[in-house]
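Contributing new records

If you add data, match the layout below exactly. Sequence lines come first and carry their own label; structure lines follow with theirs. Keep one chain per record. Anything else will be rejected by the validation script.
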Amino acid sequence: MRKAPSGLTPVFQVQKRAPNSLYQQIYEGYRKAIVDGALRTGQRVPSTRVLALELGISRMPVLNAYSQLLAEGYFESRIGSGTVVSPSLPQRISSPRPATAVKGLNPARRRVSKRSSNLLSARQFRTLRGMGPFNVSQIAFDGFPLSLWNSLVTRHARHAGAWSLDYGDPMGLKDLRNSIAEYLRTARGVRCEAHQVMIVSGSQQGLEITGRVLLDPGDHVWMEEPGYRFAHTVFRFSGCTIAPVPVDAEGLNVAAGIRKCPQARAALVTPSHQYPLGVTMTASRRLQLLDWAESNGSWIIEDDYDSEYRYEGMPVTSLQGLDRNSRVVYIGTFSKVLFPSLRIGYLVVPEDLVDRFLAARFALDIGPATFQQAVLADFIAEGHFARHIRRMRSVYAERRNALIENLGRQFGTAAKVMGADAGMHLSVMLDGICDQQISKRAAQQKLWLVPLSPFYLMKNARQGFILGFGSTSVEEMPSAVHKIRKLLGPRTISSAS
């Protein structure tokens, strides 16, 4: 049985000089709270002694009120759990009522920000998520060293002192920032020192802070077409205008961006493993982009979200490492390489902008929580992080190979696979389908196919799916891909060679 929540006192008052007795006031107060849905079935109520102390009255009227509520079936007494709201109340009583009625309200007197309206108008197909094959956001949970992580958590919990309850550094824990800077310099070719690293709550918050510092409402921002949908919402919410720039086999088409919107204030790119197509930006395109940013006085935001995993060719260093003019803000995250619920990412900020980023961060949420940072700092410093990456690179390579092999077996030339050289997802292009409709049907079978078309802002969006392979084992892959083929129907199947 689920443990009842802690006893909370509902909002009602008792008046010693009121016409009704104290017992009646307490009884009516609880009964109304239950009928209105403020108290829910199974919720624990305070003991009679505690309630009497809170109300500043004797215990006797409280005992009488509780006895009446128990007798009428509103309360139930449980051994070891105290008194709770009865779970056997009629549905019409125990169901919560709406907090407010919105019908009939005058919209003209309920003004909200234009930014929130822009956010709603930009909302597209909502990605269906769940545990199962092809979910882009999922890792190989079975491969994470959970017992080791738990031991580090326990160590820090046992040795936590009063100092750990205070606010931490708004930039993040110094030990963690030192470890991240060392890792980025060595493994990603990023030019940085620890004081340039800011710990954030995932890459999404990193984008939010960066947008607030670099951009004003009305500014134009280059974004990859197709591109990361959640970044679209961040910049729209900031009042910026998105300028979609096409992506081809070499990455962002810089020349097309210059023709379309030469004076854009910033460009958001995923050069190591473009999201969602997965292509890698070539060296010439990177240099073109850096030249444009310097000559135009623009900024480049590099989202390096899953660069740790590469399966073909030599590792690709960061775009930021090529920058000689401090025009790049680098964003990274541990969501893919460790686990999503950790919610720890980081920014590498140009030296002269550190104070501005710090001020923006402080205005948003003062600073990051410290406990998980300390655990992660130890995880990296003791070598567990590097070992985990090496081990998982092999696991994901096997799963990626199994997915490509089974896609070829089931679809032949009907499916065009892109972006399989790196990362934890690939894209599959298919003609003659409606990817959003198929994605919804797939979710009913616990297949999490992310449709490709909503990632386009312009017309003539390509149809296909973004398939994550991180959480799908090699053994599961044949049957999972076969289910996709069955969902697509005979028309697509007949085109397979």
